[in-house]
Each structure stands twice: as structure tokens, then as C-alpha cells.
Amino acid sequence: MNYKDICQEVAKLAQSTGEKLKEYRKANGLVIESKGHNDFVTQMDKYSEKLLVEGLEKILPEAGYITEESTRTDRGETYNWVVDPIDGTTNFIHSMPPYAISIGLMENERIVVGVVYELSRCELYSAWLGGGAYLNGEPIKASKAPAVGNALVATGFPYNNFDRMDGYMKSLNKLMIDAQGVRRIGSAATDLAYTAAGRFDVFYEYDLKPYDVAAGSLLVTEAGGKVCDFNGNSNYLFGREIVASNGILHDEFMQIIKDTIAE
Asked: 85 preceded by cis ω (within 30°)?
């Protein structure tokens, strides 16, 4: 399996789909549906996913799918595409960046290809296992911030699962005091891409789905960072919680998580 070649094909697909989305929105506007409390989908999420699945079928026909809008739900024996057609849908609805297409390829239990295309800035992030991470074809690396006191921290606010709010607010309170700053931009895939590029020094969030983090987690590790769940383990893809850092300040940050939000 040539991960680099697959990654390049996926990157082209994400970019072309992004351009078609822009054209489709200009021509048709938005039709917004609710999937639950503060959980929205547009006809463009479904259109994007349809285009992506059609393209991915040609790249790796034997692969199965984990998709946000359930365009395809069949699982492959070895390979599975993990697809978010528009990560940051609420941002997208309000024409407020960032929002991104996110595509990861799982081989058994590990992510081997990751592509995040942030549409508003036309930024194409890509990585394959062992090949490094890239932004528009140029190599990127995680930051060198040595400690939480030097860090710009990214997070995401829960929108319909508030079971862990007490611990989450404790973590925010601690980080607002200790870190250089805290940001919430509304797209986990982009948060992870920015962490890989060194714009953020660390990102954490709970109640995320596999398609939110699959591609971005590989970007971070291939850029030299670290990724784990809130207990420091590797169950971040399906465990609905993630910490991604530059690696240097990881242990210090994890202590904050363990003291506040970890269960």
C-alpha cells in the first residue's frame, strides 16, 4: 500500500470537492435541517459527502466507510475511510470561518492517511504514515512552546452533551489563568491542523466523533506532536475525547486535564 500516492489522490479530491461546494452554495443557497439540539446539517453536507464517497470509491474500492451523514456505512475488513464532509457546519451556516473537509484512512486500527481542506483559506493539510505533514505541499511542524505558560490553547465547546461541564469549566478556568490564551474556533479538524502547523500549541475537547479527529490526529503526530485521550491512552478516535499537543508541554498539560476533567 503506497500511502503517499493515496494521500495525494485524496488531497486532490478534497480540494476539488471544496471548490464545487463553493459553486453550489452560490447557485443554490442553504437548506438547513436539525439533527438534534444545536446539531445541524445542510444539503451541502450531504452533497459534499456524496462527492467524496464517489471519489474515494475509485481510489480504494475495497475500503469501507465511517461517514457523518451515513452516505455509506458498510465497513471494510482492513481499510475504512473516515469522512466529515463539512466540519464546522455551524460556522459554515453563518459564513464564518473556519470550516473544513476531513478525510482519514484507517488500516485496521490506525490512521495511515489524513487530509484536511480548510475551505475559507484554501489551506490543504495532508499527511501519510511515516511521511510527515504538509500545508499546501510545504512541510509543517508542531510548535516549540516549552510550557503551558507559553501556549496558545485551542478547545471546543460542547453543544449538546453537558455531562462533563463542571470539569470542563475547571479546566478552562485553570488555562485562562495559566496559558497565554484560549481559543475556540468551531472546527475540531481545523484545530488539529493548526496544532500540526504550530499555530496552536495544544488542543483538547470532549464529545467528538471519529470523523472529527481521524485526519487531524495523524497531521499532529506526523508533525512531531502527541495525541491521546484524557487519561493519556490511545482511545481518542472512538473514545470521544482528545488532547493533541506539540509534545514538549504534553505532560504538563495532561496533569491539568487529570486534575480537572479526566474521569
From this structure: no
Contact 200, 179 (CB under 8 A): no
Q: How far apart are CA 71 and CA 126, in angstroms?
A: 23
Radius of gyration of the chain (CA): 17
Burial of 246 (0-12, 13-18, 19+ CB in 10 A): buried
Distance between CA atoms of 217 and 239, rounded to whole angstroms?
A: 13
b/e per residue, 20-29, with b = 16+ CB within 10 A?
ebeebbeeee
Residue 185 has pLDDT above 90, yes or no: yes
Using DSSP's 3-state secondary structure scheme, residue 87 falls into strand
Q: How far apart are CA 58 and CA 167, in angstroms?
A: 45
CA gap 255, 240 in Å, rounded: 19
pTM over 0.90: yes
Tens digit of each residue's pLDDT (9 = 90 or more) over 4-62:
999 999 999 999 999 999 888 887 777 766 655 545 567 888 999 999 999 999 999 99
Angle at which helices 3-28 and 43-59 cross, to 10°: 150
Q: How many CA atoms are closer than 13 Å to the CA of 185, on its beta-carbon side?
A: 24
The grid coordinates of residue 236 equal: 481518542
Of 81, 76, 73, 133, the residue nearest 106 (C-alpha): 81
